[in-house]
Design goal:
Layout lengths: L8 E11 L4 E6 L12 E6 L2 E13 L2 E6 L5 H5 L5 E5 L20 E4 L2 E10 L6 E6 L2 E6 L5 E5 L4 E4 L5 H7 L4
Parallel strand pairs: 7-12
Antiparallel strand pairs: 1-2, 1-6, 2-5, 3-4, 3-6, 4-5, 7-8, 8-9, 9-10, 11-12
Length: 180
C-alpha cells in the first residue's frame, strides 16, 4: 500500500469483541451506509498503526452491532487479533450524498460568516444527541453554534464557508458560559 495520510481514510466501524467460535468479531457501526458490509467487499483494518486489506466473507446485524467474518480468520484466537481495530475505507470511496446534504466532517475548517463578518473557523463538530454543535474558534474564544437550517443558512463545502444568522443573544451566552 502506498504512503498516505490518516485523513485519506474514513473509519466506518470499530471492532469491539470476538463473537462466537468461528473467527467472527462484533463491531460498532459508525456509518450511515451499512450496505458497505457486503460479502466480498475488501475492507481495511487499522490496528497497531498499520492497515491491512481483508476480504469480508459475511456480515449480519445483531443488537445494534454488526458481526463481521473476514477471510482467513477462522478461530477465536485469530479473531482476537482484530479486536480494537478500526474498519476503514479510503476517503475517496465515501458514498455520494443527495443535494443539500453534507458530511459533518467536511465542515471542520470552514469559515463561519454572518453578514459578511468572519465569526471564526469550525474547529470540530460535537454530537450532542440533538442537533450537532459547530465549535467555532476565534481570537476571543469558543462559540458553539447549533447546526440547524434556521441558523446555518448557506453551506458551501467547496469554498469552505458557512453563512449563518445567529439568534439574538447566542454570542453573549457563549461568552458567559463557565469553563467546562
Amino acid at each position: 500500500m502506498s504512503e498516505t495520510s490518516e485523513s485519506e481514510y474514513l473509519t466506518i466501524a470499530r471492532i469491539r469483541k470476538v463473537w462466537g467460535r468461528r473467527g467472527e468479531v462484533a463491531a460498532e457501526i459508525l456509518t450511515d451506509f451499512p450496505e458497505r458490509f457486503q460479502a466480498g467487499a475488501e475492507l481495511l483494518i487499522l490496528r497497531s498503526g498499520s492497515r491491512q486489506a481483508l476480504p469480508l466473507e459475511g456480515a449480519r446485524f445483531h443488537k445494534g452491532l454488526i458481526t463481521l467474518k473476514f477471510r482467513g480468520f477462522d478461530s477465536i484466537s485469530e479473531a482476537e487479533a482484530l479486536v480494537g481495530g478500526e474498519v476503514q475505507i479510503p476517503f475517496a470511496s465515501r458514498m455520494p450524498l443527495p443535494p443539500g446534504e453534507v458530511y459533518l466532517s467536511d465542515l471542520v475548517g470552514c469559515a463561519v460568516l454572518e453578514d459578511g463578518r468572519l465569526l471564526g473557523q469550525v474547529e470540530s463538530v460535537q454530537d450532542t444527541g440533538a442537533a450537532p454543535l459547530l465549535r467555532v474558534l476565534d481570537a476571543e474564544g469558543e462559540l458553539l453554534i447549533p447546526f440547524v437550517e434556521d441558523i446555518c443558512r448557506t453551506i458551501d463545502v467547496a469554498a469552505k464557508q458557512i453563512h449563518v444568522r445567529l439568534p439574538e443573544g447566542l454570542q453573549e451566552l457563549n461568552k458567559r458560559a463557565p469553563e467546562r
